[in-house]
Amino acid sequence: MNLKLLFLCTSLLLCLLSCSINKTPKSADEVKPNLFLFIADDLSDFVLGITGNQYVQTPVIDQFAANAVSFTRMYTPSAMCAPSRSALFTGLYPHRNGCHMNHGNIYDGVKSLPQYLKPLGYTVALVGKTHIKPKKAFPFDYVHPDSLGSYLSSVSTPVCVIYASNEPHGPHAKGTNDLDAVVIPQKWLNTEKTRQKLVGYYADIATLDQELNNFLTAIKQYQLDVHSLITFTSDHGYEYFAKWSCYEAGLRVPFYMQSKGIVFKTERIDQLTSFVDIVPTFVELAGGMPSNEIDGKSFVSLLKGSNKSIHDFIYGAHTTRGIYSGLAYPIRSITDGQW
Question: Rounded CA gap, 139 and 116, in Å?
Fold first, then answer.
């Protein structure tokens, strides 16, 4: 080998070594966060300790919420299980995704959360309750709650895990609390039947609180919380003057978002937000570009401290079909946050 060629080879080798040694590690903003979403079932906002209820005990939820960004105007598009979940997982309102009745299907060709996140490198799982159809339109890894630990121990990151609890949906456990001491919400008819219903409901909420604790413990155990976003919410409000309606108590849901390794510049978001915003928000956090073809808007800008609203109005819809009783009739609503 002549000296000129030797010099060129040596220079190239040194250059490659230099590039390798001086390679800048990815910043926190470049690392894809693990995304976790815990969904309660039929949990109204007023029953939590963090919102002022001193009767029911929700220490885990309260502690989580106290260290999270609070969304004071988060709405589900429908106060009924299947339409609410279908909207959350598609970013489309019920009249656009097709699932406007309980136990209904979404339209053929409608994309769902796994189909948005998988191309961005995510493993996407749904743990627990499903209540979405058809299954082929929602290509999650379906995981039984008892298998959560083994799943988290084997999954590759980044991950998106939705934990859908059955609590505190009825039928309720038998509550052991004093019927005379139970707190009846203002304007409710204070009867023994109401108190019995609430005692069982509150007992199930205590179970929900422990379920959230187990979920958070599992995330931490497998070190998936180091760079993560963890959200707690409910599909809609409780059946008393809430579920199967377009009342505020049915459509406005508790929503708390806690971050680890991601810097948010706000502790409270009062702007209008909706379940249809979850898909585009998760897509943006995952490093993708939210689709303009869905109804939802990413609220990442709000998390970063923007005061500019992403919605002028939020819509609600209920159709009394696919449930056990009631005539088929529609209810529709629109809100600007005040009226």
Answer: 11
